[in-house]
């Protein structure tokens, strides 16, 4: 399984991705699911992937191939919207090629992509691209997009994150959402790729790869667990008959 | 959708069920999903239901019918285990009758039941009965069972509940798990049926039906939201480059 997450704020973007992949519980391995197509100083563009690994890897490789020799590629598309159209097109042709063969053996061919970044002249933007190559955009009212194992990590976002959160707070929210998912689903696992982007900087503000033994990750988990315990102790007593 | 939850502790049981049912977003109604087959002072037995409403209602009605005229019924079965066997049998015959007709119209025929209680001479017990009529039992290591919309409410249980929790704490955990699910999935809704049972009392310790406007529910939500905010404020700063 996979859990990837994009958060859109007025102050920028936070992206997080786990890196565990499994084809059955006896074949678990680690793959990167966050890909950087930015030109630092110029345009910021990240793609996060979930779903059928052969299809997402094909898409990423075709996107890279076009960078070398395509007339249209992620460095020439003029807007985030056209980037998503172009990525959707590549995804459609890959699905068209592989889907019938995968379906014959009942292998799930579906994928989801998060596309996030900022192009000059535009605000930061966050998109969800579906298997079918169509896509939707996050907004102030719906400021986060999750793909993969999305449910365990949603309550903390519903409760603690919104479009006006600071970059620091959004990053903590994202990591706690990731942590909740990792606790409840063993097939979502570290290391966690984290990207923070401050609006209009056109440079990746922060990028790290957190192992489960990372001192910050360990302290964050412990502090959160302690705070939850204390939050429990401060709940009102349930009036029993 | 539905969310029902059973918690097993060394000190007893906590059960909670929402009461919203939907067949599509334009047909939402309220149904009870927690059914009491206890003989107070004698044996405690609750059934919580999720899945196809016509099938779960059939099962509950057949169980009630047998109480009046069945040679075997929930008042004559000698153990919790045999109660589950008997309930599973009723479920199997209902599925056998209705499944082919439902499948013809691609209507989901699946159901899940939680069976919880205590019989004289036994410890409190908590079972999950599947569509197929087979069942599994909760244990000290796996002390909770969820049915319906299970994912949103799982992280809080993973973090804050275990077999040694007090009845009071388990009830709060269960209500917060319900609250997280109701925030993240609009088709899970109040009123929430809550049952608390103290081991070896053979009487329902507490039973209530919480509306969203219930003063306790409102205070609990507000206190929890405030505590989460403060928990966030106490998290370590993410070290940014």
Question: What do you see in this structure?
Answer:
The structure is a homodimer of 241-residue chains. Chain A is of the alpha+beta class and 241 residues long. Chain A has one domain (3-232): Glutamine Phosphoribosylpyrophosphate, subunit 1, domain 1. In chain A, 36% of the residues lie in helices and 26% in strands. Chain A is built from five helices and twelve strands. In chain A, helix 1 crosses helix 2 and helix 3 (154-160) runs antiparallel to helix 4. The model of chain A has no long low-confidence stretch (mean pLDDT 92). The interface between A and B is large, with 42 and 42 residues.
Please supply descriptive tags for the structure shown above.
alpha+beta; Glutamine Phosphoribosylpyrophosphate, subunit 1, domain 1; 241 residues; five-stranded antiparallel sheet; 5 helices; homodimer
